[in-house]
Fold:
Amino acid sequence: MFLPTLVSLLFFSSATVRASPCVAFDTNWNLLAFGLNGKDWNAGTQDTWSSSTTATDITASDRPSVLYFFAYPLCLRSLHRPFDAANTTCYLSQYANAIYAINADSKNPSSLYIYDATAKSWSMQTVDAGSFDYTSFGAILDHDTNVFYALSQGNLFSLDMGLLKAANSTPLNWLNDEQAPYPSGYIPVMALAQNHIHFLDVPDVPAGSADIFVIHYSYFQPQAQAYPLSNGSAFPATYGQVTSFFQADNTVQQEFAFIPTDFSATYIINVETNTTQALAAPTTKDSKATYFAGLASNGAVSYLPYLEGNTSTNAAATWASVSNLASAAPPSSSSTSGSNSSASGSQSATSPSSTNSTASGAAVGASIQYSILIACVLCVVRVRSINTILCSQ
Structure:
């Protein structure tokens, strides 16, 4: 039996050099970290994360990077600094076995980078942004259609990726589909399950409930859906980070994780049973974290084991380190005392001003000095017989 895994990533970004690498899984559930300490890494599947063998360096020459030239008396030398944009977010296309990276390159801010996880190669896809704002959005990548849906500046946008696993010469376009029924100040918290987009922290929607957009009918449901805990309590109505749990059989997601800014718990919402389970909160309470397969703000990566349907086992689960990544790219000695967190799986390049956080996406620690900028990305995958939630600290 295969089970889901949740990973989170946290990282720092300096005031002068903002870099936000990201993490993701491929369809074989290998944990990939892009831009960690200036390189890309494959940490393998969950059963290898505690191994004494370090993660594999998979840095490719065609990865998103900035090229610097240093002149010497008799030569030119080039250095690459990867994932140099401020708000990088990464998404798994399960059908294509490809990772899509938005905001990966400061020199090409509207372009989308594609990592072919089978060929282990990068390509850059030209995208016409139109009125889409890359500095302020929340997004999900729909499992069945492979279409991005994003809320930006009050409007719902879409970007059809087809089944691209490598860029083509035809530019793609962000389409402004419709105005969302939310006030202008709403900061999107978006999760995907059963081909529905779940909007959390919507004004006037009670705690423990979500507004729903039905993708296949382009329809906002008129009433929110409640997802109560077994004791009658509810996850808080607050900003936070979310990510969906992928299925090993490549069917639609049925659950998603929510980590609110109060760090009260890691909430797992099941849209089949309309229920919520509260699991252990991340050990690092970082205000700028995103979740997928992830890292912490000082470049450390950790995970939370999760066994679907096993309430007692999940309740006892605790966060642990992905040690083979730490061996390959040691985290910095810096630490963060932030009281908030953000996540991604759905991912957001925006965070509320009330948390004093700067825009972040799915991010990881890079080999530069960082101020407080943390991203945690949640992704559930079915790995062998245990589901795991990953978070970096």
User: Anything to note?
Assistant: Helices lie at 311-315, 323-328. The first strand starts at residue 5 and ends at 9.
